Structure formats: C-alpha cells, structure tokens
C-alpha cells in the first residue's frame, strides 16, 4: 500500500521499471491506424484503440490498486480496466456530451497485474454498441449503470463527466463501490441449507472491516487529498459499510426464517 502511494507521488524509475515500460511500448505497438490516448489521472492511464474487423480492440495500461490482498486487488483492477476501456472507446468514437455510449459484450482477452502496473487487452463487438441521447435529469444527477449490473450483464454505460473518476477522490470512491459489490456477490444462498452459512457471513463481515481499515489508512496517508475530500471518502465508506452490515443481518434473518419451517 505504501509502495503504491510512493510510486504515485515520486515516479522514480529503477532500471527494471524502465525496461518494463519499454516492454509495454512494444506490446502497445499496433497497426498504423491505432490511436493512443494518454488519459492520465491518478492511475496514469494510457489506452490504445483500433478497429479489427467486427470489433474494437483496446489495450489499457494503468497503475494498479495494491492496498488489499492480491485476489481483491485483481478483481478491482479488472473492473477498473473495463471503465477505462469504455472511456477510451468513447474518445475514439468522439461521443458528444449529450450522448451516452452503451456497450454490451465488453470482454477482456488478457490481463497482467504487476506490482506497479496493470496491462489488459479488451475487445468490444461493433454490434454491441448503442449511442443514446441523455435526458437532462440524467446529466444533472450523473446517473450511470451500477457496477453490480456491469458484473452481471457485462454492460457498461458512459455518461458526460465520465472522466470525473480520473480525479483522486473519485478513484477512491469507485474502489469502495467495487469492494462493496464483490462482498455482496459472496453472500451465501439463504434458501439453501448450509452448515457453513454463519461462517460465511462472519467472513464477509470481517473482510469488510479489514478492507475498510486498509483503505482508510491509505486515505489518511495520501497527502494529495484535501481534508474535505478525505471526509467525503470516509463518510461514503461508512455509509456503505453500514448498509452492508444491515444487509447481512437481514440475510441471516431470512435464512433462519426459511429453515425454521
């Protein structure tokens, strides 16, 4: 976690890191018709987009989340890469601010996670793209499809202002949302008799507390965040943590009610 932040702040490259970057440049060299976008942001996103027959192909490189366990870090970074792919494709297609890009079938072909870098190749079928006009209320509220639905349907929606997650605070908020979704996915089936049901519930609660503690430590040590931004992040994390605990309690009640019959 500390190494992740130091890399974000200093960008001091060792020879090994320099060679890794050179390797990425070679990996990212595509056809002469490919377009590269240096999107930047706290994750230093670089994207390359090209058309390949019936698909768009996107190569994404960015600084990974690294303050949790390896499995959780990879889950979060995989989902972030889909967001970055959607953003890069909206740039490539020159989507105007009054339109939203809806992508179905966004699929990763490869994913590599290293200590200081993630690289992924993602394709989007051309027939899985819709462009729709946005209602003014959606623009005002910044509505977008929830991350939970993305995981279930593999559909991604971009909206004007979608680059806001390139800001440091928004990057933290997205990370918290992803954690919340992954924990919800681990809820055991309340309709099936399961001798390990309570152990699974306890595990989710303990993991959520560990994740919260690790994230709050990172937020506290991040000197590039304003005090008000820290408070906003902490408040958002506490609200989702409270919601998760309430859902766990309700889940247990439903389980017990079902199996008392």
Topology, please?
Blueprint: H1 2-10, H2 15-28, E1 35-40, E2 45-52, E3 55-62, H3 70-92, E4 99-104, E5 107-113, E6 118-125, E7 129-133, H4 136-141, H5 147-153, E8 155-158, H6 168-185, H7 197-221, H8 227-259
Antiparallel strand pairs: 1-2, 2-3, 3-6, 4-7, 4-8, 5-6
- Write down the secondary-structure element order: HHEEEHEEEEHHEHHH
Overall outline: globular
Please outline the major beta sheet. 5 strands, antiparallel
Number of strands: 8
The number of distinct helices, counting runs of at least 4 residues, comes to 8
Number of domains: 2
Relative strand content: 15-25%
Can you tell me about this structure?
This protein has 8 helices and 8 strands; from the N terminus they run H-H-E-E-E-H-E-E-E-E-H-H-E-H-H-H. The strands form 2 sheets. The protein has a 5-stranded antiparallel β-sheet with strand order 1-2-3-6-5, with helices on one face. The protein has helices spanning 2-10, 15-28, 70-92, 136-141, 147-153, 168-185, 197-221, 227-259; strands at 35-40, 45-52, 55-62, 99-104, 107-113, 118-125, 129-133, 155-158. A hairpin with a 2-residue loop joins strand 2 and strand 3 (55-62). It has 2 domains: 2-160, no CATH class; 169-259, Topoisomerase I, Chain A, domain 4. It is of the alpha+beta class. Helix 3 packs across helix 6 (168-185) and helix 7 (197-221) packs antiparallel against helix 8. The radius of gyration is 20 Å and the shape is globular.
């Amino acid at each position: 976690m500390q190494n992740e932040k130091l890399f974000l702040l200093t960008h001091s490259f060792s020879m090994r890191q320099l060679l890794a970057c050179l390797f990425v440049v070679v990996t990212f060299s595509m056809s002469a018709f490919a377009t590269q976008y240096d999107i930047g942001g706290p994750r230093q996103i670089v994207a390359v987009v090209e058309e390949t027959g019936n698909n768009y192909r996107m190569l994404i490189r960015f600084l990974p989340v690294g303050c949790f366990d390896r499995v959780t870090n990879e889950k979060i970074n995989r989902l972030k890469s889909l967001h970055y792919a959607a953003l890069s494709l909206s740039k490539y297609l020159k989507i105007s601010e009054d339109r939203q890009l809806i992508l179905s079938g966004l699929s990763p072909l490869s994913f590599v996670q290293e200590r200081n870098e993630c690289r992924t190749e993602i394709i989007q079928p051309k027939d899985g793209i819709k462009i729709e006009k946005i209602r003014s209320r959606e623009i005002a509220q910044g509505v977008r499809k929830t991350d939970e639905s993305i995981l279930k349907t593999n559909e991604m929606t971009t909206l004007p202002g979608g680059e806001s997650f390139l800001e440091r605070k928004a990057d933290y908020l997205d990370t918290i949302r992803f954690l919340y979704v992954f924990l919800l996915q681990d809820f055991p089936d309340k309709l099936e008799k399961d001798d390990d049901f309570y152990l699974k519930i306890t595990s989710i609660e303990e993991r959520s507390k560990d994740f919260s503690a690790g994230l709050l430590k990172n937020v506290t040590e991040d000197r590039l965040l304003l005090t008000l931004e820290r408070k906003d992040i902490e408040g958002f994390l506490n609200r989702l943590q409270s919601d998760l605990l309430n859902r766990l309690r309700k889940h247990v009640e439903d389980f017990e009610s079902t199996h008392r019959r």
